[in-house]
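Re: duplicated header lines in exported structure tokens

Our pipeline writes sequence and tokens for each protein into one text file. With two proteins the header for the second block appears twice in some exports. Here is an export where it did not happen, for reference. First protein block:
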Amino acid sequence: MEKQVKQNILTLQGFYLFVFFGIGSLFPLLSIYLTEVEKLNGYQIGLILSIGPVIMIFFQPFWGMLADMKNYHNRLLTLTTLITGIAALGYLVFDKFLLFLIVATILAIFQSAIIPLSDSISLKYTSKVGVNYGNVRLFGSLGFGLAVFVMGRLSEWKPEVIFYAFFLTLVIAAGFSLKMPKESSDRSSSLFSGMKDLLRMKKFLVFLGVTFMIFGPNLANNFYFSLFVEDRGGTYTGIGIAFLIAVLSEIPFMRAAGSWIRKLGLLQVTFIAALVSLIRWIFYFTEPALGLVYASAVIQGFSLGLFIPAGLQYIRDITPSHVTATAVTVYSAVGNGLGNWFFTFIGGILFEEYSIYAVYLFFAALTLVGVFLTVWLLQDHKKTSAETGFQ
């Protein structure tokens, strides 16, 4: 049994490694490709980049409902991962803005299934066998960081290589998903029934607000950070170095997240992540020197490296077992979908009308709201912990 557990954990780690290598190959450099190769303007780029998160808002719950109703978690993950990789090749086939928009829509429909389904499978399995989820998820950060570094250099030679890398790595990831531990659905209620239960939970709704304000800017930053580094004088290779430092810094914090959570508490760790994110966006607004941008990139480890495992565990802990799957789906839709779309779209407008620094000022302002919401949850937790026994 121990050997089987290790094999399953390696399979999950391999899936995250290749999926996020693909994501890191494409999305951080897509804005540069559309700007310099396809000559699109800020409004067009903002619309293309934001259409994906909009699609995710609606389709992530759909994929979760379909998986739970039919118990197709693993098969759906394999199918959608494969189709997502193929869809990205459309950027190479077409050369018009409207067609790019269609490609982005198709890609987003199937990509929207990958994160919630893989997280659902991984969370349930790691919980079952007593393994820290962060030790699995950190391979996603490793893959993302390596991809941006490697593809940043290769794209200087041939920008189109980012699409081939995305396709190849997602095909490999689809192969890993075939060997993932099987998830069986134990839900007794429908998606909409579970949704009604969640809407009555004040803590859950407030934490969705925290996720929107904190996770949204961090995801949108994947698109705009390359433009920021370029504006500070960085090259494609420099962009890759900055992303490598930022993303790889998540790994030690994801490994340490479990012990931090045990010592400090889930909300306390979330507050630290939110506060550090706020400091990061304010710092970028001050137009720091390129060397300081590279040095400060490690801040991402504090924010996302802690927020990702703490957020998922908090959602799992505050929701009843019969609606946990629905809660994770909604949580993902708000963070990866709604928050990502909103900050990416508004960021495109601010970038076109003002500058990349206005984008980061906007990120800081909304992140501050997320910090205040986290403080509210901490205070509410102190008032109710004696009654609920929640740690």
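Second protein block, exported in the same file:
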Amino acid sequence: MSAGCAMASVSLSSRVVPTVVEARPVHSSSRQAWSRVICGSGAFDFRQRLWAPFLSTSSSSFSSRKSTVHVAASSTEKIFKTTVEIDRLIDNLRSTEYHNMAQLVAENVLAFDAPFWLRLAARADLCTSDDDRGEYEELASQIMSIVERIVSKTKEKIESSTDVLKAIIKPLTEDDNEIVWPPRNEASLIEMRKEVEKRELENFLDESFLSEVSAQLRQAKEDKDKPGLVAILQKVLQLYAACLLSKRSYAMKDGVVDKAEELLEKVMDVDEDKWNDLLRNGFTYGGGEVPSEDFFKAVDRRIERTLMRTENGSYQQRVLAEYIREIEARAESLIAAFQSSPSSR
């Protein structure tokens, strides 16, 4: 997340992440809703567009009859297993109360693809009574309605995350509405940090926010012509990490100050361009009190605590651990430079 130097004009896009919303009974024409599924429009088309990146088909030609038979058998087995899984999901949905339906749909949101809708339609066709068939039609209507609400609520959430991101980088905006990086005065970074701390207290800096920033960062890196935007987004993640990691101190233990922990916390609490001076002055080779070995042990402990106290695989875990490792890498480079200098020999 190291920040670079360039001019940047920021354009923020939105991304979709499924969330859970409360389910309500759907009172609509079940026949009309079911016909939308059978005809391949409505929710079926809606899901197909939403999850297109996850759905793919492939075909292969085989030179021998033996390989063809083998692949056909394998494919049949896979289809059977998929059908069993879909049937299990359909049965769970049929037996679920209204107030639990949204949770179940959200937990299995990737399952509502073409095979699911086709299997649901096939099971309805096998019904011998109008009541049973109507139950399947109503179920399809309910699922479609819940999925549409999930996506609608998610878009609102992402738009909110985008607004928060815009508010955080607003101090970088100058009179001509251009966002300049690096900022021409330190006050801009101070204001950015204050905005991050404020938004964190308001619980806006959640996984949706981090997902949005990470998505913008990936896109900016892929574009390769927006180094300023990359640096700005990296700075936002740095400020977020510094804000969270500074909440708890481990420098004092049993009334004794742990100098290595104290130095690490000082580094985490300042802007990146001040890291070098703090580390040089803190390490023993620069006249300080902290042996580099003790500092790296403190870094390892902090990373371990971070991994233990954050959700595994979450954006929060990734951002916090990466921030600590950046400090570690900076310390390693400084020590390597000191050891290779003529004065250290």
